[in-house]
């Protein structure tokens, strides 16, 4: 089945003038988003994520390159056509951007009234959207009475007002606690599946990508350093920036090594910290014991788990292994190949570490 291309970004660069000269926010960026994707754009602060997101609805003009939405070059259309296009593209913001003096329902109906809807029709639509996001009982409250998660639900309802085909999420969960983040991501997944809306979200948190995205790009200093399915990138991250972004997830649960863990061996005698990852097709009965045997009796398993991602399962083993373990030989072992195991050196500890 041929994928239905919804958005295409071709060789996009964006430059800004500064007091000290020209700054590059985006540098020759290219990627595609298919219809129905939940697509992640991840990178550290300053990577260019927000600038890139804003080029997709022409809130930010590109310096070079082209952006296509539904095969339309958005730089080539007139202002009236651009306004119609933007009705198809909803946007959710990190800090909610609600009118504090207006009720919740008035916030949701605002874009409809602004585009010419009758007030009665706008009110009916807004109330239905609030019911869709589980906030109908808060319709006539002011935003000041809502929690952060509830405010973001209002933001989502408002973004859905024009029945969009695309939803842009600008760090939509970064101001929320973990439990609320989970509920908002679950709501976005429901919207994607039930309404068929393409979702593009930017974040600095690989945990968010893990929970919701099927595809992603990794952005660093305005350049794409890695792109692919979430499965491919989490199973076998190739770029250093991707590995850095994934390291908090990998290191979770091995705090016993705090104070010993180093990126390079600094002692004559040391042990290697390995992460072994393998895809879910082999995990119907758990992590294969044959893989564990290959590490040898001197190795210590300090973490193993099976993680459920949006569209796949990934098994992980983190082990402290002896200095003499030959990784090249290990990678060539038929068992490792059969289970498609990726082996990554996470770091080193002294052989005398506790």
UniProtKB/TrEMBL annotation:
Protein name: Cell division ATP-binding protein FtsE
Residues in coiled coil: none
PANTHER family, A to Z: AMINO ACID IMPORT ATP-BINDING PROTEIN (PTHR43166), METHIONINE IMPORT ATP-BINDING PROTEIN METN (PTHR43166:SF30)
Family listed: Belongs to the ABC transporter superfamily. Drug exporter-2 (TC 3.A.1.117) family.
Keyword terms: Amino-acid transport, ATP-binding, Cell membrane, Membrane, Nucleotide-binding, Translocase, Transport
Signal peptide start and end residues: none
Ranges for domain ABC transporter: 7-246
Physiological role: Part of the ABC transporter FtsEX involved in cellular division. Important for assembly or stability of the septal ring.
Subcellular location: Cell inner membrane
Domain of life: Bacteria
Record's bilayer topology term: Peripheral membrane protein
Family matches, as InterPro entries: AAA+_ATPase, ABC_transporter-like_ATP-bd, ABC_transporter-like_CS, MetN_ABC_transporter-like, P-loop_NTPase
GO biological process per UniProt: amino acid transport
Any one Pfam family match given in the protein's UniProt record, by short name: ABC_tran
Organism of derivation: Candidatus Pantoea deserta
Translocase among keywords: yes
GO cellular component: plasma membrane
GO molecular function, a single term: ATP hydrolysis activity
Primary location: membrane
């Amino acid at each position: 089945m041929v994928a239905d291309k919804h958005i295409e970004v071709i060789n996009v660069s964006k430059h800004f003038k500064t007091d000290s000269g020209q700054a590059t926010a985006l540098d020759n960026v290219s990627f595609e988003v298919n219809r129905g994707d939940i697509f992640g754009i991840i990178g550290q602060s300053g990577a260019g994520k927000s600038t890139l997101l804003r080029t997709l609805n022409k809130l930010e003009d590109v310096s070079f390159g082209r952006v296509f939405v539904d095969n339309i070059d958005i730089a080539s259309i007139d202002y009236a056509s651009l306004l119609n296009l933007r009705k198809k593209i909803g946007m959710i913001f990190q800090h909610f951007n609600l009118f504090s003096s207006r009720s919740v329902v008035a916030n949701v109906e605002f874009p409809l009234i602004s585009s010419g809807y009758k007030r009665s029709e706008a009110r009916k639509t807004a109330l239905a959207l609030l019911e869709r996001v589980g906030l109908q009982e808060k319709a006539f409250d002011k935003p000041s009475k809502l929690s952060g998660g509830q405010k973001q639900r209002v933001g989502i309802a408002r973004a859905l007002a024009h029945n969009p085909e695309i939803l842009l999420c600008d760090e939509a969960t970064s101001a929320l606690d973990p439990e609320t983040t989970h509920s908002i991501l679950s709501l976005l997944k429901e919207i994607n599946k039930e309404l068929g809306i393409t979702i593009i979200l930017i974040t600095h948190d690989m945990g968010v990508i893990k929970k919701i995205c099927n595809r992603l790009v990794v952005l660093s200093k305005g350049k794409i350093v890695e792109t692919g399915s979430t499965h491919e990138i989490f199973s076998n991250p190739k770029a250093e920036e991707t590995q850095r972004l994934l390291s908090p997830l990998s290191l979770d649960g091995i705090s016993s090594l705090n104070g010993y863990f180093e990126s390079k061996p600094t002692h004559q005698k040391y042990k290697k910290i390995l992460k072994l990852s393998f895809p879910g097709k082999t995990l119907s009965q758990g992590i294969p014991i044959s893989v564990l045997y290959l590490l040898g009796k001197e190795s210590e398993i300090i973490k193993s788990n099976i993680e459920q991602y949006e569209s796949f399962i990934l098994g992980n083993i983190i082990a402290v292994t002896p200095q003499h373990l030959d990784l090249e030989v290990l990678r060539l072992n038929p068992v490792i190949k059969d289970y498609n195991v990726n082996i990554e050196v996470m770091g080193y500890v002294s052989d005398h570490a506790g």
